[in-house]
UniProtKB/TrEMBL annotation:
It comes from the Eukaryota. SUPFAM superfamilies: S-adenosyl-L-methionine-dependent methyltransferases. It comes from Perilla frutescens var. hirtella (Perilla citriodora). InterPro entries: Ppm1/Ppm2/Tcmp, SAM-dependent_MTases_sf, SAM_mthyl_Trfase_ML2640-like. GO terms for biological process: methylation. Keywords: Methyltransferase, Transferase. GO terms for molecular function: methyltransferase activity. Belongs to the UPF0677 family. This is Leucine carboxyl methyltransferase. The keyword Transcription regulation does not apply.
Length: 336
């Protein structure tokens, strides 16, 4: 097959980027202008991630993502994808995000449909512009808690309100979760768990914790504190952790942005008390979704190299990896 990924068929014309009218409303224009001028990189990453999901709509159904992303991020990522396609790139921009999104979706669904998972609470740490509470029907029995900085959650609520009040049916937000609670908190402060509990989180109730695109923005000590707090919950109740980890080489791509890394999260999590730890890499059978067919693309090449290897034997570039981890624990279970 061609070097291009299968969802971008070469014989199809590349569609123009069509922006939803709602993005040109006064409210959303002003809000996104404010995000661009006032937010730091970490907060803006919420919108950037949403843009990636919006532009991978062939595989990720997230109609709200383009509203959350805003015009600038959509245009930037659109141009990158277009260039990759024209160059027949082996990896199209954003494929890693599409795979990551689909991996988390599938693991959340599996956790909630397991015999003891139905009705579990779901907590998203660093929820950003995640729209799962509006797009996953498997959350219908779950109370969902979204934790992020106050300004991120406030912007999100403003966008949802604008969408709800518009005549644009395609973007009407409908909550598919049993309930949705936004918890404004800073994960580097000691009070985030208290704030979560004050908002209705029940420590003794089965919980699925979602840490998607968040750990590497934290310092080593803050990330470890967050992981330990979640691990302690395994002594109280059935606990599932879904998280992505960068290895050290991945954080060197931008050492001012990324901090926490772990080369062996499949050893770290059992040491904290989790059992049933499973590590996947982008391109593995459960982290593939038909998007990484080419055996010579970067992700497949990485998977074929031992994880101890730090630089590519071909060109000496860093072997940056994104690990996808699922782990669980319960009072009756011992860590492996
Ligand atoms: C890359 S985005 C990922 C958002 C979302 N999980 C997703 O996958 O779409 C990272 C998010 O983490 C949030 N974040 C980073 N550091 C945080 C902290 N100390 N406390 C709360 N949220 C934080 C940012 O505001 C941003 O929304």
């Amino acid at each position: 097959m061609s070097t291009n990924e299968s969802v971008f068929a070469e014989d199809e014309p590349w569609p123009e980027l069509k922006l939803p009218e709602l993005l040109s409303s006064d409210t959303l224009r002003a809000l996104h202008a404010n995000i661009e001028s006032d937010w730091d990189f970490m907060r803006r990453s919420a919108c950037q991630t949403a843009a990636g999901r919006a532009l991978w709509k062939q595989v990720v159904h997230d109609p709200l993502a383009e509203l959350f992303a805003g015009e600038t991020f959509l245009k930037t990522i659109y141009e990158k994808i277009k260039k990759d396609r024209l160059n027949n790139a082996r990896e199209i921009s954003g494929v890693i995000l599409a795979v990551r999104t689909l991996w988390f979706d599938s693991k959340i669904e599996a956790a909630l449909s397991s015999s003891d998972g139905g009705g579990a609470q779901v907590v998203l740490l660093g929820a950003g512009m995640d729209a799962r509470s509006h797009r996953l029907s498997c959350l219908k029995e779950s109370s969902v808690f979204e934790v992020d900085f106050p300004e991120v959650l406030h912007a999100k609520a403003t966008i949802l309100e604008a969408a709800a009040n518009s005549s644009d049916e395609h973007h009407h937000p409908i909550v598919t979760a049993k309930s949705l609670t936004r918890v404004a908190a800073d994960l580097t402060e000691d009070d985030w768990l208290g704030k979560l509990q004050t908002s209705g989180f029940e420590p003794n109730k089965s919980t699925v914790w979602i840490l998607e695109g968040i750990l590497y923005y934290l310092s080593h000590s803050d990330a470890m504190k967050v992981l330990k707090i979640i691990a302690e919950k395994c002594n109280l109740t059935k606990t599932v952790l879904l998280a992505d980890f960068m290895n050290k080489q991945a954080t060197t791509l931008s050492s001012s942005t990324f901090h926490f890394y772990c080369d062996w999260p499949d050893e770290l999590l059992p040491s904290l008390g989790f059992a049933d730890v499973k590590l996947s890499q982008i391109g593995d059978p459960d982290a593939h979704f038909g998007l990484l067919q080419d055996p010579l693309n970067l992700f497949n090449k990485l998977r074929n190299l031992p994880r101890t290897i730090q630089t590519h034997p071909d060109d000496g570039t860093p072997c940056g990896r994104l690990y996808l981890l699922q782990a669980s624990g319960s009072p009756n279970q011992t860590s492996s």
